[in-house]
Design brief:
The chain has 4 helices and 59 strands. By secondary structure, the chain is mainly beta.
Length: 908
């Protein structure tokens, strides 16, 4: 098990201790042979008990994690601090060799104890010399738990301890001299060596009482999900799944099915904790991500927009728990009270988390065709509901505190709105005159990171699709007319609102804000710390056969009106973003969706997925992906493998595609071998993979940024653990690389130029897991294989890798006119593979000549001959055949670049 989590706070530690920032670092357990055991049933390896002021027992017998003894640590007599202390005088430990403190902790019958951790080296006249100090609790994911053991790993080199050097003492100190600390327990304590490079897998701590930093009465049964983001820094999301009613003063009874805490690393190495807000207000303790809809149908029999966290959820499911990807799902029958009767609408919500990406995805589906009357289960027909959606809805302390006024709000529908004076009030200046394509909303707190870390914070939502693909924002121009402010500024339109008793004022009327956000908490000249954030759509988005999306410009041209269906089902997906305001994470995510619109995906082995479900938990007719291969539900690129292999290209038309998530269907293999642009990638470093056997899928986050038209991706499942890959570099050089075998002394690399003759040429015997064959002949096909040698014993052979030393003209065929040389090079390569399989030289129809005339047209026959002769050879050589794009029919099929590319890919 690996533990990772990282919250933040700051306080001056009493008794002369240092100012400390809290955080937690996820680490993989290190090799046992280099560990220093500190305690297993008794102190070991020279460690001594230096505990002070009472309360420690190193011979406790219940509970124990393993063996027969554990350490008990209880409160001292008030008002004295007490400490649990481990010392090894004159035998210091170096962070170069053993930087990881690993142990298990148990909260007794109560849990929730608060501790500090100190490192010391030597003593002076004032006692121990403290070299690093921090609050300990955030190192424990979900907090110190009652009645259960939790694994903890602390890297003392990382913030906030940030210590590199030696130490000979570790102290745990009770957090307050004014409160009795319930007894806690520790066991199986050791100092571990550094872990190998790479990113740890995603961790889901199930069924925790969390967030840990809240009072026990405000905690909920939750899953705590920790993953590493695009900067290889830990992020943690606490998502409640608690159907026990919780009562909070000023809020009422709520249930837990939302994001209630989000932690991320700041630029200075500290960690911000965005937790539930505690100020009075609608759903303030509920967190973020529950359902709210409004109705414009009239004749309501109750609240037209009840908060979803006031009602229990239906089901909670861990849909996918992969090595680097995870999906959790909620269902709920959400109340609808308009028109005339009480009804419920079935809602499905998924949260998706991915290593290598900063922002989780929130995806929602409304089954509008399953709306039922509460009294008799009667299904409501189309055009019954006339609703918008504001989900996800809620609040978090985006600055880690919750009492700092919001400095600004921004959103995008057909134009980009930005408040330009801070803090934001109904008197704020604004601009709304830059055209926009991707819907988003954000709020922020400006200013530099100071010692209290309450500045430079933002939270936002970005849709996974453009507005043309899925409308968002606004409600309806006839009721709440935000469109009247499009392409304007407050300088041009100084009295945007003249509504009610408080108008006129500069900002758009509160009911007209495209995404609501914290509008309802402002007044003229009065700011607010309320961090409410919402999504938004037009009335009729839920329920109407067709509704006015209110998304065209200019609004005076009815020919541009959009009237999509709000029935039978509606779905959309959003990136949920928390980060530093100065890094513009919302804008960066918007740019990524814009970049995705320029992609062209192709596959020469396998295929591009061109359609799929419109949203989560949808089994109705699929929709066309826009662009082809873009799964908007999860913000991922979608391919299908053939024979568990994929040879694809990701062409980026404009911009930079950052760390794309790729979902590969029809995949039933083992952990893959991944190659990008001819280079073998390293698992957990260059890419992050998860197998999803239940869906026959492979999920991969590439730890790469892609640009330009050529980004060739190859996926192979290694059947032998080597995953040998051959890459033709020149006509006389083939580079070979494979996965290293643990403890191997060397490798034997062999080559065959004839299937019948076998692997008679030894290329080399490298100590590492790569080699270059510089003795290859031009225009020749070879098979390669490798074996590991350990202690003089050779392993079984690896897979065979095919390489054909033909250097193709125009590596990227997209938008390149077909040339005679393209065909002649393919014939040379296919002929070489045919000879490798001992099938003799190939006689092709027509001589394809270069200018001058006479010219020979490229015919369907020429391409089918290439495919036939290549498959004749690939089968005996042990490679997949068939599965080509398009059945080529003379006089019907247009020969395309992909037909040429598929042959090129298969000869290598």
């Amino acid at each position: 098990m690996k533990i990772e989590c990282s919250p933040l706070t700051a306080r001056a530690v009493s008794a002369g201790r240092r100012l400390a920032l809290m955080c937690a670092i996820a680490l993989t357990a290190a090799a046992a042979q280099a560990q220093i055991t500190m305690y297993t049933d008794a102190l070991q390896n020279g460690w001594q008990d230096y505990s002070y002021n009472g309360g420690s027992d190193f011979l406790n017998t219940n509970p124990v994690h393993s063996g027969t003894k554990s350490i008990a640590f209880a409160a001292a007599t008030i008002p004295a601090f007490n400490g649990l202390s481990f010392a090894r005088p004159a035998q210091p430990v170096s962070t170069n060799t053993n930087p990881l403190l690993h142990f298990w902790i148990h909260g007794g019958t109560v849990g929730g104890q608060l501790l500090f951790i100190d490192l010391a080296l030597g003593e002076d006249v004032n006692g121990e010399i403290v070299v690093a100090s921090a609050q300990f609790n955030p190192y424990v994911p979900g907090g110190i738990q009652a009645n259960q053991w939790v694994e903890v790993t602390v890297d003392v080199r990382q913030p906030p301890l940030s210590y590199n050097g030696s130490f000979d003492r570790i102290d745990f100190q009770s957090a307050s001299p004014d409160a009795v600390q319930p007894t806690l327990y520790m066991d199986d304590m050791s100092l571990e060596p550094p872990v190998a490079a790479g990113v740890s897998p995603i961790v889901i701590q199930q069924d925790m009482q969390a967030p840990a930093l809240l009072p026990v009465s405000e905690q909920m049964l939750s899953d705590v999900i920790t993953w590493y983001d695009g900067s290889a820094q830990p992020r943690t999301a606490t998502v409640a799944h608690d159907n026990t009613p919780h009562f909070y003063g000023g809020t009422g009874t709520i249930f837990g099915h939302a994001l209630r805490e989000f932690q991320y690393r700041l630029g200075d190495g500290s960690t911000r904790v965005a937790s539930v807000t505690t100020y009075a207000g609608n759903g303030s303790h509920g967190g973020f991500g529950y359902v709210v809809n409004h109705s414009n149908a009239g004749a309501c029999v109750g609240d037209d927009s009840p908060l979803g966290d006031f009602f229990p959820y239906g089901t909670f499911t861990r849909v996918f728990s992969g090595r680097h990807h995870a999906i959790i799902r909620f269902t709920q029958n959400y109340p609808r009270n308009c028109p005339n009767f009480a009804r419920t609408i079935p809602v499905t919500i998924e949260w998706m988390f991915s290593t290598g990406r900063d922002n989780p995805v929130f995806a929602i589906t409304y089954d509008v065709d399953l709306v039922k009357r509460t009294s008799n289960n009667e299904i409501a027909p189309a055009d019954t509901l006339f609703d918008d959606t504001r989900a996800p809805y809620g609040e978090l302390n985006i600055d880690g505190d919750g009492f700092t006024d919001i400095d600004g709000v921004a959103w995008g529908d057909r134009f980009k709105f930005t408040s330009t004076t801070a803090p934001v009030t109904l008197s704020s200046e604004w601009t709304y005159n830059v055209a926009n394509t991707v819907p988003y909303v954000k709020e922020w707190i400006a200013g530099p990171l100071t010692v209290d870390h309450k500045k430079n914070a933002t939270m936002g939502l970005v849709q996974t699709q453009t507005m043309a693909q899925q409308d968002a924002g606004a409600r309806n121009r006839y009721y709440h007319n935000i469109t009247s402010n499009w392409n304007m500024t407050s300088a041009i339109h100084p009295n945007a609102c003249n509504y009610g008793d408080v108008g006129p004022y500069k900002m758009p009327c509160q009911n007209e804000w495209a995404y609501q956000a914290n509008a309802d908490n402002l007044a003229v000249g009065v700011s607010s710390n309320n961090a409410r954030l919402t999504w938004g759509t037009a009335y009729g988005f839920l329920g109407q056969t067709n509704y006015d999306a209110d998304d065209e410009y200019p609004i005076t041209n009815p020919g541009l009106s959009s009237y999509p269906p709000g029935y039978p089902k509606k779905s959309y997906s959003l990136f949920v973003i928390l980060g530093e305001h100065t890094s513009s994470p919302v804008e960066a995510q918007v740019t990524q969706i814009e970049t995705i619109q320029t992609l062209t995906l192709t596959a020469s082995m396998g295929s591009v997925v061109t359609s799929g479900p419109a949203g989560v938990a949808r089994s109705d007719a699929p929709v066309a992906y826009q662009p082809a291969g873009y799964n908007h539900v999860y913000g991922a690129l979608a391919f299908n493998a053939m024979g568990n292999e994929l040879a694809a290209n990701i062409a980026v038309g404009a911009g930079t595609l950052k760390k794309p998530l790729i979902i590969i269907g029809n995949y039933t293999g083992a952990e893959p071998v991944v190659k990008l642009g001819g280079a073998l990638l390293v698992a957990d470093a260059d890419y992050f993979a998860s197998l999803r056997p239940a869906a026959n899928e492979l999920w991969i986050t590439l730890n790469r940024d892609l640009t330009g038209n050529t980004n060739q991706l190859l996926i192979n499942p290694p059947s032998d653990g080597f995953g040998l890959v051959a890459t033709v570099v020149t006509a006389n050089r083939v580079d070979l690389a494979w996965m290293p075998v643990p403890n191997a002394d060397s490798y034997i690399v062999e080559r065959a130029s004839s299937l019948a003759a076998g692997f008679v040429t030894q290329v080399g015997a490298p100590a590492g897991s790569s080699i270059s064959d510089t003795t290859a002949a031009a225009n020749t096909a070879y098979l390669y294989r490798v074996r590991a040698v350990t202690g003089g014993i050779e392993s079984a052979n690896s897979n065979s890798a095919l390489a054909t030393t033909v250097i193709f003209t125009d590596p990227n065929l997209a938008a390149v006119p077909v040339k005679a040389v393209h065909m002649t090079e393919l014939r040379t390569a296919v002929n070489a593979v045919h000879l490798l399989a001992d099938l003799g030289a190939v006689s092709f129809t027509d001589s394809i000549t270069m200018p001058p005339p006479p010219y020979v047209n490229i015919r369907a026959l020429h391409m089918t001959q290439l495919r036939t002769k290549l498959d004749e050879a690939l089968g005996p050589l042990g490679f997949a055949t068939g599965g080509y794009t398009d059945a080529i029919v003379a006089g019907t099929t247009t020969i395309r670049a992909i037909h040429f590319q598929e042959i090129r890919d298969r000869v290598n």
